[in-house]
Amino acid sequence: MTIAYTFRPMTTADLPLVRRWLGEAHVREWWGDPDEQFALVSGDLDEPAMDQFIVLAGMRPFGYLQCYHLTAWNTGFGPQPEGTRGIDQFIGESDMIARGHGSAFIRQFADAQLQQGLPRIVTDPDALNLRAVRAYEKAGFVRDRMVETPDGPALLMVRAP
């Protein structure tokens, strides 16, 4: 059975949910300090170079996804084609982990963005986060190289049309 995911633009009404998710152990493990991350995520709500979404499976919100213009941040990814966007995501609800949702919603989101003309989408999971790396690979991303980001070393992964 294929699930259609919805990417609803995040609003201030979603902030309590996102705050709760950031405090979950499985999110905190890779995203870090919940208070620091909440300040960053909530502070980007009005940032024109950042699109933030609540991911829903059916009617159930279960994840967060952000999609940003690389030129607005010093990512450490090196030169990329004009128009390249970066993504980061997490599944907030622990009962939705390890069930194929991550790779499925990432693929659905990336497919739609590339069909709309984006030349490339990149992401930078921690190389030790094997669950995330596998999810991105299943979603069509390929390993490019290790990069040094402001948050430390990361595995640059690329998806192109």
Automatic annotation (TrEMBL):
Q: Which Gene3D superfamilies match?
A: 3.40.630.30
**Keywords carried by this UniProt record:** Antibiotic resistance, Transferase
Q: Name one GO biological process term.
A: siderophore biosynthetic process
- Residues in N-acetyltransferase domain copies: 5-161
Instruction: State which pathway it belongs to.
Output: Siderophore biosynthesis
Q: From what superkingdom does this record's organism come?
A: Bacteria
Q: Which Pfam families match?
A: Acetyltransf_8
Q: What is this protein called?
A: Acetyltransferase
